[in-house]
Input
Amino acid sequence: MEKNEKMVDSGGFHPQLTQLIRIMKLTSFLFFFAVAQVLAVSSYSQATKLSLNLKNTTVKDVLLVIEENSEFYFLYSNKLIDVERKVDVKINNKRVENILYEIFEGEPVVYSINDRQIILSPEGMVIGNLRNYTQQAKKLTGTVKAEDGEPLPGVTVIVKGTTTGTVTNADGSFSLDVSADVETLLFSFVGMADQEVIIGNQTVFNIVMISETIGLDEVIAIGYGTVKKSDLTGAVGSMQGDAVAERQTTMVSQALQGAMPGVTVTRSNNAPGSAATIRIRGITTIGDSNPLIIVDGVPMDNIDDINPNDIQDISVLKDAASASIYGSRAAAGVILVTTKRAKVGEIGLQYNMEYGFEKPTQLPEYVNVTRYLQMANELRWNDNNNNANEFPLYPKDEVDNYLSLNGENPNRYPNTDWVDLILNDNAPRQSHVLTISAGTKAVRTNASLSYDKTDALYDGRSYERITARFNNDITINKFLAASLDFNFKRSISNQPNTDPMYFTLISAPVYAAEWTDGRVAEGKTGANIYGSLKNGGFNDSWFNDVGGKVALDFTPLDGLKISAVLSPTLGFDKRKNFRKKVVYYSADDPSVYGGTLQWNGTTMLSETRNDNYRVTTQFLANYMKSFGDHNLNALAGYENYYAFNENQGASRDQYKLDSYPYLNLGPLEFRDNSGSAWENAYRSWFGRVMYNYKNRYFLQGNVRFDASSRFHPDYRWGSFPSFSAGWVISEESFMKDIDFLSFLKLRGSWGTLGNERIGNYPYQATIAFSNALFFQGANVVSEQTAAQTQYAIQDISWETTVSTDFGVDASFLDNKLRFTGDYFMKTTKDMLLALEIPDYIGFDNPDQNTGEMETKGWEAELGWNDQQGDFGYSVSFNISDFKSKMGDLGGTEFLGDQVKKEGSEFNEWYGYLSDGLIQTEEDLAASPKLNTSMKVGDVKYKDISGPDGVPDGKVSPEYDKVLLGGSLPRYLYGGNIRLNYKNFDFSLVIQGVGKVNDRLEGLMVQPLMENWGHIPKILDGTSWSKYNTEEQNLKAKYPRLSQNNRGNNYTMSDFWLFDGGYLRFKNMTLGYNIPSSVTSKINLQGVRVYGSISDFLTINNYPKGWDPEVSASGYPITSSFMFGLSVKF
Amino acid sequence: MKNKLIRLLFISGLFLFSACTDLDLNPLSEGSSENWYSSESEINMAVNDLYRNVFWPRDNDEWTDDYTRRDLTTPITNGTINGEWGTVISVWQNAYKTIARANTILANLDRSVGAVPQTTLDKFEAEARFVRASQYAMLISHYGDVIYFTDVLDLEEAFTLSRTDKNTVLQSVYEDYDFAASKLPTTYGSSELQRATKGAALAMKARIALFFQDWAIARDAAKACMDLGAYELHADFRTLFLSKTKNPKEMIFGVPRSAVLNVVIGNTKNWINRLAGGWGAAEAPSWELLCSFLCTDGLPIDESPLFDPRDPFKNRDPRCTETIVEFGTPWLGFTYEPHPDTLNVYNYKTGKYVKNNDTRSNAAFASFNGLMWKKGIDEDWADDYRAENEIFIMRYADVLLIYAEAKIELNEIDQAMLDASINKVRARAYKVAVSDVTKYPAVIAGTNEAMRKAVRIERRMELAFEGRRYEDIIRWKLAEKVLSKDIYGMLDVADLRSKVINQGLWFFPQTPEIDEDGVAIFEPIYNAGLIKRLALRDFDKNRQYLWPIPTKEILINDNLQQNDGY
Output
């Protein structure tokens, strides 16, 4: 305090200015009165909540301010209480007890509240209700903690039906003198459910407060600011940090799955360190649909660079009104991540650790070796027109006696279970987080350090990540505050030279992985993925990011805050791929050279380096002011962003030695290197006005002007306005009488967003360089070549998305039941897309402003929470759906078996209509054909049209392919159940997809991939076969086994589509907080232990062995089994 | 405080000002087309691009009857080809990329008139037109009528185009080649880059004229190329194709490869025997090819008394054993012998006998028909399975045979002509002089029909595995016959032993009959149960003489119609 005073003095205020500031000190603050809906006690002190923000003000003045703005009055003696002491008070919407606690913390002052009257007295004097002043008293003590075992300071503890009470101190403990006849204590805290406890004979109370999952008082982040959830006019989803951490994923992106309606998270594998794809409200554009990630106000490339434990909360800006403050880059939505910061009065150290392991949810199954030989023979026999030789590949003797032959000579007749050999039963995983936080009024620091390591299901692969984050807030004086943040991330991804998954799955058992004496075997003529995995070298990457943020907040007047932010992020990545030559020798004679493994022909080292940096600078001015019932919040800002990337690569091949992965050890002849660089920049102006009247009618307007380096100077600027409005109907007098309704708000918004993520120089026809070889005499030399490869469109400019949203937020029955629903429409115009141009133009498809698409969808969330004595529970469920239709695109885009064209859905399946299997020769003769190679047992297709617009008797790709339905998931849902009883807590999270058209991919249903691979078990007995009876064949699910007709049978058609919807039990956690009576004995503030399992059950239609989320040859989706311990010191 | 405030505002203002990033950003590691093509070195780099090997694909011999890929077929040989086949698309795309780049150069040459000597500009123009002609020639020979343009297309114009008659395109191709021939040098010095030459333009013109049966044009162009005197046949047929023979005088146009410069044939294992670490003739010569080589008396195997089905390599045209590995001879360090009773073979490197992995009795995936490709393959293929053999696009022997064929079709047959063309090629194979007719079976002037058969057989023997066979069977309308025949190989080991070897019938159980087109007929032997049918082939003669236009092109441009039958 003294220090601040001095600083103000030495600053040399002009006398008049000093006077002004003095007046401001007394009068400028923010007050919000809110009627507390929940409290059972209806006394004035319980019902009144205050907000004030005063700095360096005497206690006396603070008390005066409170008196002026409320009906409280204070009784105290100047002689007994030091009221000239200067304090800082920053209270948002809290009861008067909290303010008093804040003012007198550490001071020898106690206070007693009697309705509007507050008595301050020196410690030691008995306090309480004046009328009971002389009554006999008893002392109640205890501690109050949050669900995670963290002590809760500032919890109001009152005797129910009276105003006698106190608040808990920094370690969550309280002590209260009450009269002997009191019955019930009431504990309350903002954001937590109130708790009543019968006193009885008890004098020591250990209370765990349960947070209200989605409280309307919750403050959530919006663009460049925060707002109370109840004041929102746009569609914003939010998730608390503890809910993120609770998912037990290393990657934040995966933790968002099923957490919020309208946020689609898909994963294709669960490899260590793998990220999931996030889509907000479906697909808005053909180009990049990744949402913009903003961490503590600054754009960041990858949400997975953040440790989930560092997250305070995540907001997702879904509609244009919320996101348009980010204008240009917000077309696909915005994810705002706020990291944890320390609070005043907080001090502590927390250590969390988790150990566990992962197991594949499912693995595909394959036929046994004998069936393999039989079915492989059948396949060849089919391809040879079913001639006399039914054993074209494996002789009958061999087929009949394979197992005994294997016993005699396993080198010659191997029976290898590749999956079992390569995939371990489980992969261990661990993480450790150390958090230190300390907050004084001047400096508040939250520091965390974490380490994660996940091993993989096969050797040679792992993911490690170290993150550090230091968030510091410094209050310099009444006008100036600063925050200094620093973060660091290093992740290390170790992988074998060859990703083994595909070959592990397809390798047939008749090839040996190791000879019986342990040497590398030949596999399928060198395709031995096991040998390659064990000996073939590594492909390791290191990613380092260092970021920071310096922000200065200048508050010249109350309500006006001017901020300057500078945030650089530097990245240094390195990759080293050391491929080792692996030689195999004859099974019988180790001196006989066999060859090299398919992926390991020579020893080669290639290294790449990436150097990048991003700099964001921001200037923001925010003004908040209330004029009676009119509340105003205005923001203006300027932002700059610059990104730079430079890559270099170098390699040498034909190393003689394979133990020195350094470039200087390779031969000079086989050197190669590469380099590239790019940069881009934005400049933006933006503003926002939020206004509300009586917290009942809300209006908001945003606008952002963006310029991007990606466009020609003449087409560079885009403007993106938006408007939204909200009406809290429940505040209207005519609604006040409806008892069961606690809150009801209608919202509507309209806005535009921009997108320009299409490569860095799209308006310039760049010249690409390459090399060509020429003879020069008898030598071969390389010459540089140059060519324009892209057709450039100079007037290319912003793509815009117009989005409209209608929403309703409601809660019922004392906020126990909550509902949020939204309907939205998004229309994207001037869409930037690389439209298909005729190949004969000779250039790659250029990006151009063409085309429209429209997405319509809805989302809803329903929740219930309640507390019955020691038992608290909550349930919530969310669901969303959207459908995108392509408008006039000015052309068509093909993506293999999916298409985007006018009238189609986004990436709709495109192929033939099937008509079962061809069962007989007559059937074959009568059926239209793709070509003359079709045979009985193949898939039959429908003839839709021909060159003249009528069926031509042929099935051809030009005239007979039709749209087969959307490929994107529909009806995405998620939900959770939380229970707590005394020191136990339990949660269950589910997630799923209602319906999706999925395709049975090659690996799932095709025999002999690569012409030598394995045969999926699901084909055995279900394929059309010459050996079957007619009835069996009528029931066959799959076409006859064939290699040569692969193209006919497995081409895109509805034959292979099925409903891939699923329900997944994402996570189940059971936790226990060790009672403080135990932990306090060992000087710990809290200990929590928990066990958690993730991805442990799914219900779906997929072929046996295939997880609905896995991409066929990808790393499996895994279940994880975790044990965790969290200790607070 | 006031000063402080002002100071703070000033500093933040400065900060604001300095924080304005420049938005005029240009590519950092690429050039800009705005001002390209303005200097000689820039145009030169653009012209260089036209020589990249991706733009010079050859037809795949897998699409012909010269090839066996175990029991597999291709979309051409099993008749499943359609407009979505990757090769149909990529050949089309790459041809038009090359054409667009050549057109861009041609359209921009006048930018540097004055800055670059006219003769240099003429040479650039000639090279660009040579490349463009070659691409259009390839397109019309595969797709028939195609989109034809000679300027830089803009998007709107592109959608209005439709297919131009192939004969019209052909005339333009001739004009381009003629211009190129008139401006290009005949040879380059040994310190110069070997780019397109006059001879290359003439030879390529002769080739496309022959395809479209413009016999006189083919004859004249081939003759003009021969008359340049710039080319001669390489003395040794075997070494001509090996990677150590660089830029031989026989090569008229080719694309080099270099291991050091990282341009190689990858995955050579397909053609290498298993003992040498390969995949044992995953891709192998067909029995039909083996049977198509004449015997040393100049007769086909079913007529020649010199042919022995028990030893099919004996008394054959020397190119037979230089194209296909003869049984029992050293090959890549081992004795090559597919006989199932030869369980061990000699390892020349160690001097020991090793298990013979090149027979199916020891290795299930050893060559299914016993044959192994030899032409162009050398020890260096097996070192690291990467090879740097150059790609022959045009060589002198081909020109001689084009000339012979054109003359024969024009019925201008005389011995001198034959000696100057087809016999020159054949004599080189025997490593003797043309006149030394006792040492090789020279072609003697005869009927038009006999001569036509002779030149066709000669082409097959001379040009096997050089990507020429596909175009030949298409233009001779032979594809419907040879690609409707099935692929044959040896019986499985047990049957082979009992039905063939124990009967003393190894290797060919019978001598296959050779028909009037020089095509071997195996059906009777198959019907006798003595050989195995490896795969069925199917060729739809109603459509497959032309490839389909890529499906995507038809779907996005209403002016385009697919070729008949697709």
User: Anything to note?
Assistant: Residues 1-42, 126-135 of chain A have pLDDT under 50 and may be disordered.
